[in-house]
Hints:
The chain has helices at about 5-20, 40-50; strands at about 25-35, 60-65, 70-75, 80, 95-100, 105-110. The protein is built from two helices and six strands. The strands form two sheets. It has a three-stranded mixed β-sheet, with helices on one face. Strands 4-3-5 form a three-stranded antiparallel β-sheet, with no helix packed on it. The chain is an alpha+beta fold.
Amino acid sequence: MHELPITESLLKIALDHAKKGNAKRITDLHIVMGELASMVDDSIQFYWEIIAKDTIAEKATLHFRRVPAELQCMTCFEKYHPTDKELVCPKCHGVGAKIIQGEEFALESIDVE
Length: 113
């Protein structure tokens, strides 16, 4: 359920930027989500349709771009992409890893008219 406050933040940011640009309508939002981010696209879309109603963002399309996870083993320093949520290093089978990418969540761009 943490998608609701996140979706509310997305709407606020979009409306604020649209207002500054004197936009009549928000058409698209481009959202970047890391593979390891705990947000669910469908939940964000569901909440968006409810909270954006009767705003200039009501008919905006949400576009989600997923960033694949990349980890670095803290034992052998091998960089790798985990498979099936398995975080074990494929080279040395170490279990300690640093996340290089994959936890991102950001509003990348907003399209307006």
